[in-house]
Amino acid sequence: MAKLHLKRKRFVIPDRYVLLIVTAVCIILMFLTYFTDAVSTPLSYVAAYTIVPFEKGLNTVGRRIEDKLEQLKDINDVMEKNEALQAEVDRLTIENNQLSEDRYELSELRSLYQLDDKFSAYDKVGARVIGKDTGNWFSTFTIDKGKNDGIEVNMNVISGSGLVGIVTEVGPNWASVRSCIDDSSNISGMVLSTSDTLMVSGDLKLMENGDIRFSQLTDDGDKVGVGDEIVTSNVSNKFLPGITIGYISSIETDANNLTKSGSLTPTVDFRHINTVLVIKELKQSKKSE
Amino acid sequence: MKRKIIELILIFVCFILQCTFFKAIALGGIVPNLLVIITASFGLMHGQKEGMYVGFISGLLTDIMFGNGIIGLYALIYVFVGYFNGLLSRIFYPEDIKLPLFLITISDFLYCFICYILTFLLRSRLDLGYYLIHIIFPEMIFTVLITLVVYKGILNLETWIEETEDEEN
């Protein structure tokens, strides 16, 4: 005879049902976040108050240690370099005179091309890199400025003279930046000297050498060569025009004989990127003005 | 409850370490995957539910910070890693490091492979061989090395949690 279970067992959901439920939740979340911002905005606040403060703290510690190590290394270097530098000072003094002449000429030429002070006109905000993508597939990083500092999605990020990437996500005090060497990054660029447009797309394979791939360059006159400067094009809908991306390091004709592709070396050192500037101007808003 | 909180703190610590410290000391640009280590270990030591819980939180954090606007993808992958390791918790013995080591290796490989399929293959990056050699295998090896170092710590933490839970009951 079967035993009667008088004591009721505690109700526990079986594991595979939990798995099913969680899977469903994840898939719904994916759809929701793909189409709306309703879920990701509150979640970005969670990150802002849990992870970002620690990242900032750790980063400060890391930088201090780095500074100390650098100092020690520097002392040795300085001793050696001092002698060599003394000799160079003389040479450079002569060169400097020549260069200041050149600079005068350059600024004149620039104003001719109306390229002068192109970037200083934009309102920029400096930010520190506080964390990098946890995986090995993509090249995105977080910075310590966010919505509270006026940063919005699709703002351009530069460092020194070159393009770093674009803001993809924003939290109250953090933002994610997709760098232009990232495999999923596609930028419409152009060759500065000939104004030929091309596509600049990051490639994980070239990332090791720090290069970016470019393609779809139409160059009928064979004027574009190694060493030419590539800037963001004025037909791009997200990037402000005229920001330097890099210089062509290799170029070859495609199999279709019409377009050319190759690789370019970015002006920014993506391995050792610590501080960046975010241009607080969107291409779209500029257009509507 | 206490267990959940301790695990939550551990996930946060691992996540923060992963995107700051480990990125800074990355060898050849490759970082080990701490989140897979803890997800697989907790699944293995304490069953499917624990694995799914740890996996879900780890994945969600990754999604929020680095998900490119889509939340839920990495969470889903990590949940499955936790679940399948949890299935094998029946044959787990604390003294034996070979099984967890083996499972973490497999988990990391599958994690990378699914990542490759979902985020690279679907964008017609077909050169699997290159990605295997340059990304997936280095990450696996690095993860195994880190597992050897931290596994004892995770095991001690788990034993400690279980002891305090027994006392409370």
Stated plainly, the CATH topology of the domain at 121-282 in chain A is called Thrombin, subunit H
Largest sheet of chain B: none
Beta-strand content bin of chain A = 25-35%
* Tally of DSSP helical segments of chain B: 6
**Helix/strand/pairing class of chain A, anyone?**
alpha+beta
SSE order of chain A? HHEEEEEEEHEEEEEH
Oligomer: heterodimer
Largest sheet of chain A: 6 strands, antiparallel, barrel
Q: Biggest sheet of chain A, strands in spatial order?
A: 1-2-5-4-3-12
Write a brief caption for the model:
The complex is a heterodimer of chains A (289) and B (169). Chain A is α+β, with helices and mostly antiparallel strands and 289 residues long. Chain A contains four helices and twelve strands.
Give a description of the structure.
The complex is a heterodimer of chains A (289) and B (169). Chain A has 289 residues and is α+β, with helices and mostly antiparallel strands. Chain A has a domain at 121-282: Thrombin, subunit H (Beta Barrel). Chain A contains four helices and twelve strands. In chain A, a hairpin with a 5-residue loop joins β6 and β7. The mean pLDDT of chain A is 83. Chain B has six helices and no strands. The model of chain B has no long low-confidence stretch (mean pLDDT 89). Chains A and B meet through α1, α2, β1 and α3 of A and α1, α2, α3, α4 and α5 of B.
